């Protein structure tokens, strides 16, 4: 059997590319609401009719600029995302400008589960979470954007590693 570092888990169980669009839309959702509120306020104030058109145009342009920048960022984030289920520990590395690497020894893992948020449901994506006794594990120790089959398979592999480390 080839060594796992030569065949990382990310190649066997890849992220779904639709994660890029999900993260982009989720990121622009907030800004869409903000710009919608600004547009409504600008259109309601009758004294600002000329300014209202400028505000509406600026909000629309800004919304699309934010969407494009977020899509570019999420594409880079997706390309740099790395995880591997190694013999003694799980490695998760993510980030574009300041990458973070989390190394989790199996004997420290307490829980493994998969879940979805509302945007995951829309895009049929799942997040695989592993946790330790530390607070940061809940924030850093997850692999987001997998399909259900890959999520379940990785969960099973990690649970087997945890069971093996407890012997």
Characterization of the model:
The structure is a single chain. The protein has 167 residues and is of the alpha+beta class. It folds into two domains: 18-77; 86-165, no CATH class. 55% of the residues lie in helices and 19% in strands. The chain is built from six helices and six strands. The protein has a three-stranded antiparallel sheet. A three-stranded antiparallel sheet has the order 4-5-6. The radius of gyration is 21 Å and the shape is elongated.
List keywords for this structure.
three-stranded antiparallel sheet, 6 helices, 2 domains, alpha+beta, 167 residues
Number of helices: 6
Q: Cα-atom Rg, whole angstroms?
A: 21 Å
As residue ranges, the low-confidence spans are 1-5
How many strands appear in the DSSP assignment?
6
- How many distinct folded domains? 2
**End-to-end CA span:** 23 Å
Strand content bin:
15-25%
The SS-based structural class is alpha+beta
Q: What level of helicity do the residues show? A: 55-70%
Largest sheet: 3 strands, antiparallel
Order of helices and strands: HHHEEEEHEHEH
User: Would you tell me the overall average pLDDT?
Assistant: 88
Q: Main sheet: which strands, in order across?
A: 1-2-3
User: Quick one: overall form?
Assistant: elongated
